[in-house]
Design brief:
Blueprint (H helix, E strand, L loop, with lengths): L3 E5 L3 H12 L3 E5 L11 E4 L4 E4 L4 E3 L3 H9 L6 E2 L4 E7 L5 E6 L38 H4 L5 H15 L8 H10 L10 E4 L3 H15 L3 E3 L4 E7 L2 E7 L2 E4 L5 E4 L3 H7 L9 E10 L9 E5 L5 E5 L2 E6 L10 H16 L8 E11 L3 H4 L12 E3 L12 H16 L3
Parallel strand pairs: 1-2, 1-14, 2-10, 7-16, 14-20
Antiparallel strand pairs: 3-4, 5-9, 6-9, 7-8, 11-12, 12-13, 15-18, 15-19, 16-17, 17-18
The protein binds flavin-adenine dinucleotide.
Flavin-adenine dinucleotide binds next to helix 1, strand 15, strand 19 and helix 10.
């Protein structure tokens, strides 16, 4: 392709598309509506806690091959940290029990046969029905494929799936749950190591990408919001911004990497997911205990995961829609009360911030999953990207990056 590729949106989908194309020597201009890149995966300075925090804690797994490859290509893979093995610490707030789930590296799940490594209260045979999640029938919800009760469900499947799908798991798409299980648990511990951007999402995933794009000659225009597209039969003719129109030549192409509710506003008539789920994050300015695991799963609580960062303790609650209208002060107190009980930190509330992302991800139900379009459109010079396009994965960093790479591959092959 000889022309210029205009990429709309500098989230991870847009950035990965830009990187893939720039690496091939393609002329690229990224247009981002806001003042910052990263979209739903960003760091910002927060006055309440007086430090730079992430909009939400993001967990990657060592099996997220596209995300890790992206990090290597922008020279930032060393910023991701995690334990040497696939270890997950848990505490049950109701019973006070604590345990570490420890997957072995290979695909044969020896950990299931080792009482000290498997989920407490489970027996090896309990794990057999999980095989039904590997290749479920089309269009089914998780609750139609496996039994969503019992210790194995409550202590492994629910925390894994609520985090990965961002929905109450029985309602979640079995197809998307299967993709997660096949790419992580079924591969073994080497695909399940938890990885965290300890220095923040911005310094790890976003700023190095912007630096690399600049080195490769790509242009990134901030505060450059796409308002409309002039559509002709078979192609996009022009892009409309507040400061004017960009007419597209025959060799130019567009990758639309915006959220679905924006995509549908500039492309009326396309089918996109229309329902969303929230993620709630609470950040507390306090030094975590020296022996705190980097990430701790909490059961029978409002809190789901506690992350320990230098000088900060952060909490993630996925499928957090029920907490969207809870007064902020009350929510901070409820969450901190649980964190203090679990960690032994003082009960007095430290400086805090609550970040509620209402439309954190599309609702990963079978019905919404079926609405996800593929990357190709009826306009030959327009390709879609974003975690909500049909990647076969839930809305995750890995899905967003794969969608960006896929869009770049399609555009690179345009005549
Ligand atoms: C709180 C939270 C926690 C999460 N936790 C995890 C996790 O632990 N692990 C994980 O893998 N994933 C997690 N995710 C999901 C992950 O953040 C997303 O899947 C990913 O960032 C989506 O990237 P994207 O590029 O598809 O979309 P977005 O990040 O939404 O990017 C779209 C971009 O388009 C821009 N834009 C919109 N309209 C216009 C316009 N008209 N013109 C120009 N630009 C426009 C936006 O400003 C934005 O920058 C989490 C998400 C949230 C919100």
């Amino acid at each position: 392709m000889d022309g210029t590729v205009h990429i709309i949106g500098a989230g991870l989908a847009g950035l990965s598309a830009a990187l893939s194309l720039s690496e091939r020597g393609q002329a690229v201009i990224v247009h981002e509506a806001t003042t910052f890149a990263g979209g739903r995966c960003r760091s910002y300075h927060d006055a309440s806690v007086g430090m730079t925090i992430d909009n939400g804690n993001h967990l990657l797994l060592s099996g997220n091959r596209a995300a890790l490859d992206f990090l290597r290509r922008i020279g930032a893979d060393h910023w991701l940290v995690g334990p040497d093995g696939a270890e997950f610490s848990f505490v049950d707030l109701a019973s006070g029990e604590r345990w570490i789930l420890h997957f072995n590296d290979g695909p044969l799940p020896f950990w299931i046969f080792d009482r000290s490594r498997r989920v407490p209260g489970t027996r090896p045979l309990d794990y057999l029905p999980l095989a039904r999640l590997l290749w479920p029938p089309a269009g089914k919800a998780v609750g139609e494929v496996i039994d969503c009760k019992g210790p194995l469900y409550q202590r492994l499947v629910e925390p894994l799936l609520v985090g990965a799908l961002n929905i109450d798991p029985p309602l979640g798409s079995a197809r998307l749950a299967a993709a997660i299980v096949r790419e992580t648990l079924a591969v073994g511990g080497r695909a399940c190591r938890p990885l965290i951007a300890r220095e923040g999402l911005g310094p790890t995933l976003v700023e190095p990408a912007l630096v690399r794009l600049q080195e490769l000659g790509a242009t990134v225009r901030m505060e450059h919001q796409l308002r409309a597209m002039r559509l002709a039969a078979g192609r996009i003719e022009a892009l409309e911004f507040a400061d004017g129109l960009i007419e597209l030549g025959d060799d130019d192409a567009v990758i639309l990497a915006v959220p679905p509710y924006i995509a549908v506003s500039v492309l009326p008539g396309i089918e996109v997911p229309t329902e969303f789920r929230a993620i709630v994050n609470a950040h507390f300015r306090i030094e975590p205990p020296a022996d705190a695991p980097a990430i701790l799963g909490v059961l029978n609580a409002t809190v789901q995961w506690i992350f320990a960062f230098p000088g900060r303790v952060s909490v993630t609650i996925s499928a957090g829609d029920r907490l969207i209208d809870t007064p902020r002060e009350q929510l901070a107190k409820t969450i901190w009360d649980e964190v203090a009980r679990v960690t032994g930190l003082p009960a007095i509330l430290p400086p805090w911030q609550i970040v509620r992302e209402r439309r954190a991800t599309f609702a990963a139900t079978p019905e919404q999953d079926a609405k996800r379009p593929g990357p190709a459109t009826q306009w030959r010079n327009l390709v879609l990207a974003g975690d909500w396009t049909d990647t076969g994965l839930p809305a995750t960093i890995e899905g967003a990056i794969r969608s960006g790479n896929r869009a770049a591959d399609i555009v690179a092959k345009l005549p």
